[in-house]
Amino acid sequence: MMKTVGTITEIFDLFYKRIDDVSIHTKHTVTNGKYGYELKDGILYCRGKQIGVCNKFIPFVIKLNNIEDYLYRPLVKLKNQKIRGKINVDIYNICRENTNIIYNDIHSILSVLWYGVNQNLTVTRHILEKDVTNQKFADVRTHQIKYNNARKGWRSALKDILSICKEYGLDADTIINRTQSFNFTYVEYRGFAKNYTRLSSIFNLKDNIRITLSPTENLIISGKILYWQTIRSKKVKTAYCKNYAEFKKLWNNTITRKQLKDVIRIKFNEYLDNQKAIEEAKAKKYREELEVLIQEFRDYKISNIPYQWRQYGTYAVMRYESTNGVVRLWNDAVIKLKDFTDFAHFFAACVQNNIQLNHKTCYNYKIQFGGYYVWEVQANDLWNAMWGGQCITIMDVIIICNRIGISLEEYKVTRKQLLSQFEKRQEV
Question: What phi and psi, each to the nearest 5 degrees, are found at residue 190?
């Protein structure tokens, strides 16, 4: 069975639906003759290189990441990740290192998964251990979150492996009970060398979860996080400590640590209240100026409104330019007249079918009604450009439609219905 598709969206739709025994490819080939993307026997290829596993026998997806991107992507399982607004699927992100070849059998797939989650756990733990002794503060909380998530991913993978092996009568011990050493190379990223030492410790993978940071190391990590999030980053002033050396002396003592935490909490709350007042005054000023800029934009006096002011708006603004026959958004994005016409008809059709036009339903370009996708935006991410995280004024749509002679009456949608739908949408 062979199916030819034209877009990567269609390929990933099949991939994340875990369709097996199907071979699909793009219409265009690359220089080496390999198809750009190919899903064959449950394995997804990109230019002939394996980038993921999606087998009908496993209830999750395994994505392989390049070693160059390894430390800059999610390293753990993203539970119930919503793919393109359609389905919820469990995703395991693992490094491709030493897993260049995956065979389409359950034992091979589970072995790759087991090695990957252990690699995630070992790497994230190693990075967090380095944070104990180095002078870094900004990324410590991020590293802690990745390490904790890696532990959750490890436990989740173990549970999945045991359940799948039991279902298909496989010996789980041959997968789990393995002794292995991990070797990590130096990584170059945007010209900067990430100097992570080569790990050569040998241990049984089923005991990997038991290797943890000591209570003393965890105390240092929590202290660094508190120091960065309050004193260093937010510049909270305390009489107790002016630098990390003074902070560390107080933090290492049980009595002074409690006093320090109480003072920081009070000072940090004062800081947040002050920042809130500053932000409210700033927002009020920019909102007042935004109203003037919107009117100037509609009067063709300015070509766009800077984001500095746009971020305080509750809706997006657009105008029709008859000289070049396009619709221009307030962020200077230009939409072809045909695309805008399709968008207006889409707008009307959604209202006619009582489809709620909110961020939840529209973010991923598709609207579901009655179990069917009634519309798909094809015009170069048109909806994403129109949305911009904000509402579109229905009045602008109606005014532009009237100017260019588009009638929405054929969709049996009145101006009142459109306006009422817009008001309902603002409340969502």
Answer: 55, 40
State which amino acid sits at residue 146. Answer: K
**Burial readout 352-365 (b: 16 or more C-beta within 10 A, e: otherwise):** eeebebeeebbeeb
Q: Quote the DSSP letter at residue 198.
A: P
Q: Answer yes or no: are the C-beta atoms of 75 and 150 closer than 8 Å.
A: yes
What are the C-alpha distances in Å from 240 to residues 63, 243, 414?
Answer: 48, 10, 66
Whole-number Å distance between alpha carbons of 205 and 173: 11
Amino acid at 347: F
Tokens of 402: 């009237």
Q: Which of 11-20, 32-41, 140-149, 418-427 has the highest mean pLDDT?
A: 140-149
C-alpha R_g of the chain: 27
Please give the structure tokens belonging to residue 116.
């990957």
Three-state SS for 393? coil
Euclidean distance between CA atoms 3 and 25, whole angstroms:
7
Q: What is the DSSP string of 357-368?
A: -SHHHHTTSEEE
Bridge partners of 139, per DSSP, are none
Return contacts of 275-280, CB within 8 angstroms, 24+ apart.
Answer: none
Residue 127 has pLDDT above 70, yes or no: yes
Rounded Cα distance between 332 and 373, Å, is 30
Split at pLDDT 50, 70, 90, the class of 55 is confident
Decide if pLDDT at 103 tops 90. Answer: no
Please report where in the chains the tokens 């690359």 appear, as a residue. Answer: 30
Structure tokens given for 92: 């395991």
- The residue extents of the domains of the chain are 1-56, 65-76+86-212, 217-275, 314-427
The size of the chain, in residues, is: 428
What is the distance between the alpha carbons of residues 341 and 335, in angstroms, rounded to a whole number? Answer: 10
Residue 82 to residue 202: CA distance in whole angstroms = 37
